[in-house]
Predict the structure.
Amino acid sequence: MVLKKKKDKDSKTLLNSIDRVVDILKDNPQYGRPNNARKLPNVFNKKQLAKLFSEFEEVNVFMGSLIALFCGLRISEVCKLKKQDIDFEGKKVKIVQGKGSKDRYVMIPASLKPVLEKWSRLTHGDYLIPSISERRVSENYLSCKFRGYLKKAKLLIQTEKTSHGQQRHLYSFHTLRHTYATYLLERGVDLYYIQRSLGHSDIYTTQIYAYVSQKDLKQKIGMAFKSSKRKTEMVSDDPINILKIRFANGEINQEEFADKLEVLNNLQKSTLFG
């Protein structure tokens, strides 16, 4: 009888504790589970990028878009970027007072450095992307111009409208930043370094790119469904290595190997990222 009373008392205590936790979660939504309805960002693929950048006519818009893609900058950071904040020797850019009024450094890829150096010498004024008056370009100007080139590239795809009736699109200038982050992740860069490069205060914000990147998933599913007759395709993801293996196994002759190798080398040289 005493034991039963003790169990009843413990059960009531547990239920009261659960009720209190539920009340806390209701009053403080930030303690609840993550927002599962969160939408994944869209990214450009290589073919889309090549098409988009081939449409640019204004060099300042081209350069602003290029540094956003190669350095993962927000449109406001591109517009405010000054030449004095670019360290070509150290291959880095200082982002002054980015989102949240925070400074950070972003590395300049080797393939972008000579283009930026030449552009910096040719332009006048303090800003990397100057307007006609040599002041910085406005975010609205850069966004509108970019949207125009998206339209020319047939990438201005309408999606839903906001609650205020504003039309949203599948891609925007900010998609360049999403593409940068996803590219780094697929190249094996640790999320911590991607977080620092993007200037995210919370690693959970950066983790969304792990859902966008499908590289590992494609590899694992592809390997699971490959037949044993195609073992050479499972050895390496590098097309040149695969080609060498096929040549070594006698699957292609020397002339075919030389022709295909030349094509692959030319494709790799045309990659947007160095």
Q: What stands out?
A: Residues 28-34, 228-236 have pLDDT under 50 and may be disordered.
